[in-house]
Specification:
Largest sheet: 6 strands, antiparallel
Helix content: 10-25%
Strand order of the largest sheet: 3-2-1-4-5-6
Structural class: alpha+beta
Number of strands: 17
Shape: globular
Length: 451
């Protein structure tokens, strides 16, 4: 199966039918059309190939200081008008919202060259199956690969009665795999790109198999606090939770963020710089937010100093500044947070990072991670798919998985070195994040598993 973009002009013709609404002061329409395929495999065989397509409108209506939101999958002029009337009814029964900042004014959203790849948008199940077969072939006899290869396309538009209209289309391809077998070994690898042709599934399979092969017969290790090298997949988990817990402008202002009251202070290692930039060619995503505000680069941490967070129109109005273009779809009670996070790379190779460990752990990735203490940015989770003990700067042997409970801020305060290579990951709530590996002086492990 395949689908084609609806296109800028047809989308505009439909969504603008919601704007002519009697009794409303302002109307905003968010249009999102998504389609794509997913190929899942387990035990080194494809067991599922699916296709989905969804077209939706989300309409926000303002009357006085009351706001209502309604959504529909009826992508027609009549459907848009009907949903707008429903939103108007909801606005009439909603509580007053005197802090509502108004809709986005007209502003041109920048282009993102290369964001949309037609071959990815129409990639067939057979083509994905061929790519998966190449991945699976990298595992030796006695090992089995499981995972998924997904290709997605999206077009989105925002139009409102203030005169704003913006439209963009993008694609995304992601592959993840876990190779397992032998005597308790497992290895993980993944890749993500705007174009499926940019993903080398042979390399992904080779990396996952190498980890599975090298993690045979893992040994017990007592819980404790150890120096660690976290590979990019593990760093992505820290970055994702910190994005949510720390960098929302509303959370910072309301004292809920781990950075509240600490702006312009050196809170983490001077080796750490972080920013959000949806317009970078090294990531994926829309050039505007879900209110229609153009996105921009926002520096969040510079040389360890926390500079601030990101804003939608509401939190920006409260702070007396302009929106940074990070609004989520309405209704949204969480406020804004970064969706295209970058952690700046350093100069160290992967071998350099490990060589700097006297005694410690090399961690491939985390899983089943959850928040323990939001204000302190403490999370817990497990290591998975490749964890090794390091002595005298060399990998000594694999170890069984450990549970960690750790403040992300404290971990980043202890960063001793930063990898030069970065990995693009698309998971959690991100469009995509790009991060390097890190060597950290102390990371707390509070429990162990039997495998």
């Amino acid at each position: 199966m395949s689908a084609e973009p609806i296109g800028r002009e047809e989308a505009r013709a439909v969504v603008e039918a919601a704007l002519d609404l009697k009794g409303a002061d302002d109307v905003e329409v968010l249009f999102v059309h998504e389609w794509g395929g997913l190929t899942r495999f387990a035990d080194s065989a494809i067991h599922q190939s699916t296709w989905r397509e969804d077209t939706g409108l989300r309409i926000r209506v303002v009357t006085g200081n009351r706001v209502g939101v309604a959504s529909t999958n009826e992508f027609t002029k009549d459907g848009a008008a009907k949903a707008a009337r429903s939103a108007l009814e909801l606005a009439g029964t909603s509580a007053p919202d005197p802090a509502f900042p108004g809709l986005a004014p007209p502003a041109e959203a920048p282009d993102r060259p290369g964001a949309y790849d037609q071959a990815t948008a129409e990639m067939s199940p057979a083509a994905r199956a061929e790519a998966v077969a190449v991945l699976i072939a990298q595992a030796d006899e006695g090992f089995h690969a499981a995972g998924a290869f997904e290709t997605q396309a999206m077009e989105a538009a925002v139009v409102n009665t203030e005169g704003q209209f913006c439209y963009s289309a993008s694609t995304k391809a992601t592959v993840t795999t876990v190779v397992s077998g032998g005597q308790g070994g497992a290895g993980f690898a993944d890749d993500a790109a705007a174009a499926a042709a940019s993903i080398d599934t042979e390399d992904v399979g080779r990396r996952a198999f190498a980890k599975a092969r090298d993690s045979q017969n893992p040994r017990d290790l007592e819980p404790g606090t150890y120096p660690v090298v976290l590979e990019p997949a593990a760093v992505t988990t820290l970055a994702a939770f910190l994005s949510y817990l720390g960098f929302g402008g509303r959370s910072i202002a309301e004292g809920k963020s781990c950075f509240s009251g600490r702006l312009n202070e050196r809170v983490v290692s001077e080796r750490i710089s972080m920013y959000d930039d949806a317009l970078s060619p090294d990531t994926m995503g829309l050039p505007f937010d879900f209110e229609g505000t153009p996105k921009q680069r926002v520096d969040l941490v510079k040389d360890g100093v926390v500079l601030g967070g990101v804003h939608d129109r509401r939190s920006a109005a409260q702070a007396g500044i302009a929106s940074t273009g990070h609004a989520l779809p309405p209704p949204n009670t969480e406020g804004a947070f970064p969706l295209n996070l970058f952690m700046a790379p350093g100069q160290a190779s992967g071998d350099d990072l490990v060589a700097g460990l006297d005694r410690g752990l090399l961690v491939s990735r985390f899983h089943y991670s959850n928040i323990v203490h939001p204000k302190e940015a403490v999370i817990t989770g497990m290591t998975r798919d490749g964890t090794w003990w390091v002595e005298d700067g060399k990998i000594a042997h694999p170890v069984k998985n450990l549970r960690f409970t750790q403040s992300i801020v404290q971990a980043l305060a202890g960063v001793e070195d930063v990898g030069r290579d970065t990995t693009l990951a698309s998971e959690f709530f991100f469009e995509a994040s790009r991060v390097p590996a890190l060597r950290i002086s102390a990371f707390t492990f509070t429990g162990k598993s039997d495998h």
